[in-house]
Amino acid sequence: MVLKSMVASASDLSLVSAAGNVPLDFKNRVFGGRVISLGFRFNRGRWKGNERFNFKVRAAVDVGVEGSKSKALQGTSGFDVVSEGDITVKGFAGLRKTKLVCTVGPACNSLEELENLALGGMSVARLNMCHGTREWHRDVIKKIKKLNEEKGFCVSVMIDTEGSQIHVVDHGASSSVKVEEGSIWHFTAEHFEGSRPFTVQTNYTGFSEDIEVGDELVIDGGMACFEVIEKTGNDLHCKCIDAGIFLPGAKFSFWRDGKLVRRNYKLPTLSTKDWADIDLGIAEGVDFFALSFVNHADSVKDLKNYLSTKSTKSIKVLAKIESLESLHKLEEIVRASDGIMVARGDLGVEIPLEQIPTVQEDIIYVCRQLNKPVIVASQLLESMVEYPTPTRAEVADVSEAVRQYADALMLSGESAIGSYGRKALAVLDMTSSRMESWNREENRQKLLNHHQLGAALPECITEQICNCAVEMANNLGVDAIFVYTKHGHMASLLSRNRPNPPIFAFTDDESTRMALNLRWGVVPLLVDLSDDAESNISKSVQLMESKGLISQGDVVLVVSDIAPKRSSPMALQSIQVKTIG
């Protein structure tokens, strides 16, 4: 094996300035068309052409930055079975970059079905704590970990908290129920076992406070619609005026004269049940928590502080954007979080439907500017809960999220309770791959403009090295990018630029590997890293060669922040282009 390296000096990187962290400007950017009702704007154009560095890079840049030594990991094998198989069949260029998240429910909680989803491309398994017992969820987590350990998968686990949900109703059946126009339904806070005909349980006794006869009750943003015809105590008798489907654990909202009836219950973001669910996740070693109904950054910070004292591993906290309040405080929520989920179902209840596409695009944009992964969720392939093929409009919706460079797409009911979960996952896989190919053909990543993240000089250097690396990789047409990273930061900066080649992130930290499962275009590998950069490169190339994944003539671009020598207190941040010979 011969590695041919093209190297240039540190003078090839010219730093002009290193400005501090400037807040994003929301004043001149409108979320949708109804400006007055939302009052939420920011200026995307502010960052276009706003370069903080002028730089030239030939091939390699060595910059000394103080850093800590990396601890070695013993005896790890690196690749997960799905990535290895995809590279073997499709090659580097054929790898899908958009990550896929599946909600686990009664339709797919068996070991066999979970394995099928993993083989189909599921990177993250989501557990919705609105449904099922803690024992049920614990069993699912153990099954996923068993598949990872025994079958060689790399599937992360996400717990999605229920939150202080006062807007949830359940008809008691295990699957969807069709609602006929003109039928009369009883909505009650009374709790009972099983189901009763035309009776729906709510999970909050005060659900009907301030509601009047004549108000409209909308299920899941329009899946079915009722008119309140009688109010008895806290119970409501409602007549269906728009027929549709009633899913288990459905969300509801009240409307009066065409406007959402807003009520402030002053409930905490995390309920007592949520804290118990979080403790379950900590005990079982999950990788992500998705926090429901986040309206301000403090709730995210509180959970992260709690995890830092209770968990020995790094667990990432995602905030779900699903309310008007969360849009008003979007930037501070994104900055405080480790990632964002665009919960379009609940969000569509709070803002006009026609604003959802632009709001989605703007949330994705803000997340990319602040280098946080973003998941587009809710109703991507809703028809596939009941039918084996999606509508063409749904495929177009998926394609649009991919075109906007969302990090991940999520299946909800399609995989949890649907009869065609595997087919729905295959649709996401094929549609994402095709749209990514179009993005590359159109050279759309050239249109991306990035807000400067770093404030201190070392942070700015790291960021610019990653920006240069992606530009070089695209211009040179390399086959892959290798990055060696302890905490995943450099891998995330590379991903932020949406490069054409896949990013192989070599790390010796299990938490980092599982967290990178949500990063666009990143294939995380758990390997034994040393303080010798050249040794790491040689070992990773040998690993790829041993599995037949890389061959003579392939070109890889290598980015590293691992210290070059054990005796050196300085870390080497470098870009190298290597040809396999």
TrEMBL record:
A cellular component term, taken from the record's GO annotations: chloroplast stroma
Pfam families linked to this entry: PK, PK_C
SUPFAM superfamilies, alphabetized: Phosphoenolpyruvate/pyruvate domain (SSF51621), PK beta-barrel domain-like (SSF50800), PK C-terminal domain-like (SSF52935)
Every Pyruvate kinase barrel domain range: 96-424
Catalytic activity: pyruvate + ATP = phosphoenolpyruvate + ADP + H(+)
Cofactor: Mg(2+); K(+)
Sample GO molecular function, one term: pyruvate kinase activity
InterPro entries, sorted: Pyr_Knase, Pyrv/PenolPyrv_kinase-like_dom, Pyrv_kinase-like_dom_sf, Pyrv_Knase-like_insert_dom_sf, Pyrv_Knase_AS, Pyrv_Knase_brl, Pyrv_Knase_C, Pyrv_Knase_C_sf
Pathway(s) this gene product operates in, as recorded in its UniProt entry: Carbohydrate degradation; glycolysis; pyruvate from D-glyceraldehyde 3-phosphate: step 5/5
Keywords tagged on the record: ATP-binding, Glycolysis, Kinase, Magnesium, Metal-binding, Nucleotide-binding, Pyruvate, Transferase
Enzyme class, spelled out: transferase
Alphabetized Gene3D superfamilies for the sequence: Phosphoenolpyruvate-binding domains, PK beta-barrel domain-like, Pyruvate kinase, C-terminal domain
PANTHER family: PYRUVATE KINASE
Family that this chain belongs to: Belongs to the pyruvate kinase family.
Protein name, UniProt field: Pyruvate kinase
Origin species: Phaseolus coccineus
